[in-house]
Amino acid sequence: MRNKLLLGTLLGICAFVFLGIAAPDTLDQKSARTYGSVGEAGDILLLVHYEIDYAVLPADPANETFLNMYNDVSVGYGIKAATPYVYVNSGYGEGAISIYLDATEAAGITWGDADTSKILGNPSSFSSPPVDTQTIEWRAQTGAGATLASDIAALASSLEGTAAWSGVDLVDGELLTSAGQEYFEAVIPNLGTYAPTLYSGGLSNPDFVERDFDMSYRDELDNFWSGSALANSWDSASAFTGLPIIFVRTLATLILGAVASWYIVRATGESILTFPIMAVAIAGGTIINWIPLQLTAVMGFMGILIIGFTLWLKRAT
Hints:
The longest helix is centred in the C-terminal third of the chain and has 24 residues, at 245-268. The termini are far apart. 42% of the residues lie in helices and 20% in strands. Strand 1 and strand 2 (44-53) form a beta hairpin. It has 10 helices and 10 strands. The chain is of the alpha+beta class. Helix 8 runs antiparallel to helix 9 (274-287). It has helices spanning 2-19, 62-65, 145-160, 178-187, 191-194, 216-222, 229-241, 245-268, 274-287, 293-316; strands spanning 26-36, 44-53, 66-72, 77-82, 93-101, 116-121, 131-135, 137-140, 171-172, 175-176. The protein folds into 2 domains: 21-198, C2 domain (Immunoglobulin-like), CATH 2.60.40; 217-316, no CATH class.
Protein backbone atom coordinates (compact mmCIF):
# COMPACT_ATOMS: atom_id res chain seq x y z
CA MET A 1 0.00 0.00 0.00
CA ARG A 2 2.81 2.36 0.92
CA ASN A 3 4.60 1.61 -2.37
CA LYS A 4 1.44 2.42 -4.35
CA LEU A 5 1.04 5.76 -2.58
CA LEU A 6 4.65 6.66 -3.28
CA LEU A 7 4.26 5.65 -6.92
CA GLY A 8 1.12 7.77 -7.29
CA THR A 9 2.91 10.79 -5.85
CA LEU A 10 5.82 10.37 -8.26
CA LEU A 11 3.47 10.01 -11.21
CA GLY A 12 1.63 13.20 -10.14
CA ILE A 13 4.90 15.11 -9.98
CA CYS A 14 5.93 13.84 -13.40
CA ALA A 15 2.54 14.75 -14.86
CA PHE A 16 2.83 18.29 -13.51
CA VAL A 17 6.35 18.66 -14.92
CA PHE A 18 5.41 17.47 -18.40
CA LEU A 19 1.82 18.76 -18.60
CA GLY A 20 2.32 22.29 -17.12
CA ILE A 21 1.56 25.30 -19.33
CA ALA A 22 4.27 26.14 -21.84
CA ALA A 23 6.15 29.39 -21.48
CA PRO A 24 4.73 32.23 -23.58
CA ASP A 25 6.29 33.22 -26.88
CA THR A 26 6.65 36.75 -25.50
CA LEU A 27 6.67 37.90 -21.88
CA ASP A 28 7.46 41.58 -21.58
CA GLN A 29 6.64 44.71 -19.64
CA LYS A 30 6.53 47.59 -22.08
CA SER A 31 6.36 50.02 -19.18
CA ALA A 32 6.10 49.94 -15.38
CA ARG A 33 5.29 53.36 -14.00
CA THR A 34 4.46 54.66 -10.55
CA TYR A 35 2.38 57.67 -9.52
CA GLY A 36 2.35 59.19 -6.06
CA SER A 37 -0.46 60.60 -3.90
CA VAL A 38 -3.22 59.77 -6.36
CA GLY A 39 -5.81 58.82 -3.74
CA GLU A 40 -4.24 60.04 -0.52
CA ALA A 41 -0.99 61.69 0.48
CA GLY A 42 1.86 59.19 0.45
CA ASP A 43 0.21 56.40 -1.55
CA ILE A 44 1.71 54.82 -4.71
CA LEU A 45 0.04 53.42 -7.82
CA LEU A 46 2.00 51.06 -10.10
CA LEU A 47 0.66 50.79 -13.65
CA VAL A 48 2.14 48.09 -15.90
CA HIS A 49 1.71 47.74 -19.65
CA TYR A 50 2.36 44.06 -20.29
CA GLU A 51 2.56 41.69 -23.24
CA ILE A 52 2.00 37.95 -22.85
CA ASP A 53 1.82 36.35 -26.28
CA TYR A 54 0.99 32.77 -27.22
CA ALA A 55 0.62 31.34 -30.69
CA VAL A 56 -2.02 29.02 -29.19
CA LEU A 57 -3.80 30.39 -26.15
CA PRO A 58 -3.71 28.28 -22.98
CA ALA A 59 -6.98 26.84 -21.71
CA ASP A 60 -6.72 28.90 -18.51
CA PRO A 61 -7.10 32.72 -18.63
CA ALA A 62 -4.20 35.03 -17.81
CA ASN A 63 -5.57 35.97 -14.39
CA GLU A 64 -5.05 32.34 -13.33
CA THR A 65 -1.66 31.82 -14.94
CA PHE A 66 0.26 35.08 -14.44
CA LEU A 67 0.69 37.68 -11.77
CA ASN A 68 2.42 41.02 -11.31
CA MET A 69 4.52 41.82 -8.24
CA TYR A 70 5.92 45.05 -6.79
CA ASN A 71 9.46 44.47 -5.50
CA ASP A 72 10.83 46.92 -2.95
CA VAL A 73 14.61 47.01 -3.29
CA SER A 74 15.01 48.19 0.31
CA VAL A 75 13.49 44.95 1.68
CA GLY A 76 14.59 42.67 -1.14
CA TYR A 77 11.28 40.98 -1.95
CA GLY A 78 7.82 41.53 -3.39
CA ILE A 79 5.43 43.41 -1.11
CA LYS A 80 2.19 43.19 -3.11
CA ALA A 81 0.86 41.33 -6.15
CA ALA A 82 -2.02 41.54 -8.62
CA THR A 83 -3.32 39.57 -11.61
CA PRO A 84 -4.35 40.72 -15.10
CA TYR A 85 -7.97 41.69 -15.70
CA VAL A 86 -9.54 39.50 -18.39
CA TYR A 87 -11.41 41.62 -20.93
CA VAL A 88 -10.39 40.30 -24.37
CA ASN A 89 -8.37 37.32 -25.62
CA SER A 90 -8.50 35.65 -22.17
CA GLY A 91 -6.22 38.41 -20.87
CA TYR A 92 -3.34 37.47 -23.17
CA GLY A 93 -1.65 39.71 -25.69
CA GLU A 94 -1.22 43.26 -24.42
CA GLY A 95 -3.00 44.70 -21.41
CA ALA A 96 -2.65 46.61 -18.16
CA ILE A 97 -2.20 45.66 -14.52
CA SER A 98 -2.12 47.96 -11.52
CA ILE A 99 -0.99 47.61 -7.93
CA TYR A 100 -2.17 50.20 -5.44
CA LEU A 101 -0.24 50.76 -2.21
CA ASP A 102 -1.97 52.95 0.33
CA ALA A 103 0.04 55.35 2.49
CA THR A 104 0.63 52.70 5.15
CA GLU A 105 1.78 50.06 2.66
CA ALA A 106 4.00 52.57 0.85
CA ALA A 107 5.53 54.05 4.01
CA GLY A 108 8.78 52.06 3.64
CA ILE A 109 9.26 52.85 -0.06
CA THR A 110 11.75 55.53 -1.05
CA TRP A 111 10.66 57.49 -4.10
CA GLY A 112 13.21 57.08 -6.88
CA ASP A 113 14.77 53.82 -5.60
CA ALA A 114 15.63 51.05 -8.05
CA ASP A 115 12.42 49.16 -7.28
CA THR A 116 11.22 46.65 -9.86
CA SER A 117 8.05 45.22 -11.28
CA LYS A 118 7.89 41.51 -12.07
CA ILE A 119 5.54 39.60 -14.35
CA LEU A 120 5.84 35.92 -13.53
CA GLY A 121 4.02 32.71 -14.17
CA ASN A 122 1.84 31.29 -11.43
CA PRO A 123 3.82 28.43 -9.87
CA SER A 124 0.65 26.34 -9.83
CA SER A 125 0.45 26.56 -13.64
CA PHE A 126 4.10 26.24 -14.72
CA SER A 127 6.71 23.62 -14.00
CA SER A 128 9.28 26.39 -14.44
CA PRO A 129 7.54 29.78 -14.09
CA PRO A 130 8.72 32.41 -16.62
CA VAL A 131 9.70 35.81 -15.22
CA ASP A 132 10.16 39.29 -16.67
CA THR A 133 11.64 42.05 -14.52
CA GLN A 134 11.36 45.75 -15.31
CA THR A 135 12.87 48.68 -13.42
CA ILE A 136 10.13 51.04 -12.30
CA GLU A 137 9.83 54.47 -13.90
CA TRP A 138 8.91 57.09 -11.30
CA ARG A 139 6.50 59.47 -12.98
CA ALA A 140 5.06 62.04 -10.55
CA GLN A 141 5.30 62.00 -6.79
CA THR A 142 2.53 64.59 -6.18
CA GLY A 143 -0.24 66.02 -8.29
CA ALA A 144 -0.05 62.94 -10.50
CA GLY A 145 -3.63 63.03 -11.79
CA ALA A 146 -2.86 64.79 -15.06
CA THR A 147 0.21 62.63 -15.73
CA LEU A 148 -1.73 59.45 -14.98
CA ALA A 149 -4.57 60.53 -17.27
CA SER A 150 -2.17 61.30 -20.13
CA ASP A 151 -0.35 57.97 -19.73
CA ILE A 152 -3.60 55.97 -19.62
CA ALA A 153 -4.88 57.69 -22.75
CA ALA A 154 -1.62 56.82 -24.53
CA LEU A 155 -1.76 53.24 -23.23
CA ALA A 156 -5.37 52.84 -24.37
CA SER A 157 -4.46 54.14 -27.82
CA SER A 158 -1.56 51.67 -27.99
CA LEU A 159 -3.81 48.74 -27.01
CA GLU A 160 -6.30 49.64 -29.75
CA GLY A 161 -3.57 49.06 -32.34
CA THR A 162 -2.94 45.43 -31.32
CA ALA A 163 -4.60 42.37 -32.76
CA ALA A 164 -6.10 41.25 -29.44
CA TRP A 165 -7.97 44.55 -29.10
CA SER A 166 -9.07 44.81 -32.73
CA GLY A 167 -12.54 46.34 -32.97
CA VAL A 168 -12.54 47.66 -29.38
CA ASP A 169 -12.50 51.44 -29.00
CA LEU A 170 -10.95 52.39 -25.67
CA VAL A 171 -10.20 56.08 -26.07
CA ASP A 172 -11.48 59.05 -28.05
CA GLY A 173 -8.83 61.74 -28.03
CA GLU A 174 -7.99 62.21 -24.35
CA LEU A 175 -11.26 60.72 -23.06
CA LEU A 176 -12.05 57.10 -22.35
CA THR A 177 -14.94 55.52 -24.21
CA SER A 178 -17.52 53.40 -22.38
CA ALA A 179 -15.40 50.31 -23.11
CA GLY A 180 -12.27 52.13 -21.97
CA GLN A 181 -13.95 53.16 -18.73
CA GLU A 182 -15.15 49.61 -18.09
CA TYR A 183 -11.69 48.12 -18.66
CA PHE A 184 -9.50 50.66 -16.89
CA GLU A 185 -11.86 51.02 -13.93
CA ALA A 186 -11.50 47.27 -13.42
CA VAL A 187 -7.73 47.52 -13.79
CA ILE A 188 -7.49 50.62 -11.55
CA PRO A 189 -10.30 50.83 -8.99
CA ASN A 190 -11.25 54.45 -8.16
CA LEU A 191 -9.75 55.68 -11.42
CA GLY A 192 -12.46 58.35 -11.65
CA THR A 193 -11.10 59.85 -8.44
CA TYR A 194 -7.44 59.56 -9.46
CA ALA A 195 -7.79 60.94 -13.01
CA PRO A 196 -11.21 62.57 -13.55
CA THR A 197 -10.10 64.29 -16.77
CA LEU A 198 -10.32 60.93 -18.55
CA TYR A 199 -14.10 61.16 -18.37
CA SER A 200 -16.46 63.26 -20.47
CA GLY A 201 -18.46 64.10 -17.35
CA GLY A 202 -17.36 64.69 -13.81
CA LEU A 203 -17.96 66.47 -10.57
CA SER A 204 -17.05 70.09 -10.21
CA ASN A 205 -18.03 73.01 -8.06
CA PRO A 206 -20.51 75.29 -9.85
CA ASP A 207 -19.43 78.84 -10.49
CA PHE A 208 -21.93 80.99 -8.63
CA VAL A 209 -22.27 84.59 -9.73
CA GLU A 210 -23.98 86.75 -7.16
CA ARG A 211 -26.36 89.21 -8.73
CA ASP A 212 -26.48 92.81 -7.61
CA PHE A 213 -30.03 93.92 -6.94
CA ASP A 214 -31.01 97.57 -6.96
CA MET A 215 -34.16 99.67 -6.86
CA SER A 216 -34.08 100.75 -10.50
CA TYR A 217 -37.40 99.08 -11.37
CA ARG A 218 -39.09 100.67 -8.37
CA ASP A 219 -37.74 104.08 -9.35
CA GLU A 220 -38.92 103.54 -12.93
CA LEU A 221 -42.44 102.83 -11.69
CA ASP A 222 -42.44 105.77 -9.31
CA ASN A 223 -41.51 108.16 -12.11
CA PHE A 224 -43.73 106.60 -14.78
CA TRP A 225 -46.46 109.29 -14.55
CA SER A 226 -44.23 112.18 -13.49
CA GLY A 227 -45.20 115.46 -15.13
CA SER A 228 -48.39 114.09 -16.72
CA ALA A 229 -51.94 115.44 -16.29
CA LEU A 230 -52.88 112.26 -14.47
CA ALA A 231 -50.08 112.78 -11.95
CA ASN A 232 -51.41 116.30 -11.31
CA SER A 233 -54.90 114.84 -10.78
CA TRP A 234 -53.55 112.43 -8.17
CA ASP A 235 -51.84 115.30 -6.42
CA SER A 236 -55.11 117.27 -6.35
CA ALA A 237 -57.07 114.26 -5.05
CA SER A 238 -54.47 113.67 -2.35
CA ALA A 239 -54.62 117.29 -1.26
CA PHE A 240 -58.42 117.26 -1.22
CA THR A 241 -58.75 114.05 0.82
CA GLY A 242 -55.70 114.58 2.98
CA LEU A 243 -54.53 111.03 2.15
CA PRO A 244 -51.16 109.93 0.70
CA ILE A 245 -51.05 109.72 -3.09
CA ILE A 246 -50.21 106.00 -3.01
CA PHE A 247 -53.30 105.32 -0.89
CA VAL A 248 -55.54 107.32 -3.24
CA ARG A 249 -54.26 105.45 -6.31
CA THR A 250 -54.65 102.05 -4.60
CA LEU A 251 -58.17 102.88 -3.47
CA ALA A 252 -59.11 104.03 -6.97
CA THR A 253 -57.81 100.77 -8.46
CA LEU A 254 -59.75 98.64 -5.97
CA ILE A 255 -62.94 100.64 -6.61
CA LEU A 256 -62.58 100.20 -10.38
CA GLY A 257 -61.97 96.46 -9.89
CA ALA A 258 -64.96 96.15 -7.59
CA VAL A 259 -67.21 97.96 -10.11
CA ALA A 260 -66.01 95.69 -12.94
CA SER A 261 -66.57 92.61 -10.78
CA TRP A 262 -70.09 93.70 -9.80
CA TYR A 263 -71.07 94.31 -13.40
CA ILE A 264 -69.69 91.01 -14.72
CA VAL A 265 -71.09 88.95 -11.83
CA ARG A 266 -74.49 90.55 -12.33
CA ALA A 267 -74.37 89.74 -16.07
CA THR A 268 -73.17 86.13 -15.66
CA GLY A 269 -74.49 85.14 -12.26
CA GLU A 270 -71.07 83.64 -11.45
CA SER A 271 -69.81 85.19 -8.22
CA ILE A 272 -66.61 83.18 -8.38
CA LEU A 273 -65.45 85.47 -11.21
CA THR A 274 -64.84 88.18 -8.61
CA PHE A 275 -61.44 86.73 -7.70
CA PRO A 276 -59.84 86.61 -11.18
CA ILE A 277 -61.28 90.03 -12.05
CA MET A 278 -59.83 91.62 -8.92
CA ALA A 279 -56.52 89.85 -9.55
CA VAL A 280 -56.35 91.32 -13.06
CA ALA A 281 -57.24 94.76 -11.73
CA ILE A 282 -54.54 94.61 -9.06
CA ALA A 283 -51.92 93.31 -11.50
CA GLY A 284 -52.82 95.99 -14.02
CA GLY A 285 -52.72 98.67 -11.34
CA THR A 286 -49.25 97.48 -10.35
CA ILE A 287 -47.99 97.65 -13.93
CA ILE A 288 -49.12 101.28 -14.34
CA ASN A 289 -47.86 102.09 -10.82
CA TRP A 290 -51.24 102.73 -9.21
CA ILE A 291 -50.58 100.01 -6.63
CA PRO A 292 -47.23 99.50 -4.87
CA LEU A 293 -45.34 96.42 -6.04
CA GLN A 294 -44.79 95.34 -2.41
CA LEU A 295 -48.53 95.36 -1.71
CA THR A 296 -49.20 93.27 -4.81
CA ALA A 297 -46.61 90.72 -3.68
CA VAL A 298 -48.20 90.48 -0.24
CA MET A 299 -51.72 90.11 -1.67
CA GLY A 300 -50.48 87.52 -4.16
CA PHE A 301 -48.96 85.47 -1.35
CA MET A 302 -52.18 85.73 0.66
CA GLY A 303 -54.11 84.62 -2.42
CA ILE A 304 -51.91 81.52 -2.76
CA LEU A 305 -52.56 80.66 0.90
CA ILE A 306 -56.33 81.03 0.43
CA ILE A 307 -56.30 78.86 -2.71
CA GLY A 308 -54.20 76.22 -0.97
CA PHE A 309 -56.55 76.17 2.01
CA THR A 310 -59.59 75.93 -0.25
CA LEU A 311 -58.20 73.09 -2.39
CA TRP A 312 -56.49 70.95 0.24
CA LEU A 313 -56.86 71.89 3.90
CA LYS A 314 -60.54 72.71 3.85
CA ARG A 315 -61.29 69.53 1.93
CA ALA A 316 -59.25 67.46 4.39
CA THR A 317 -61.17 68.83 7.39
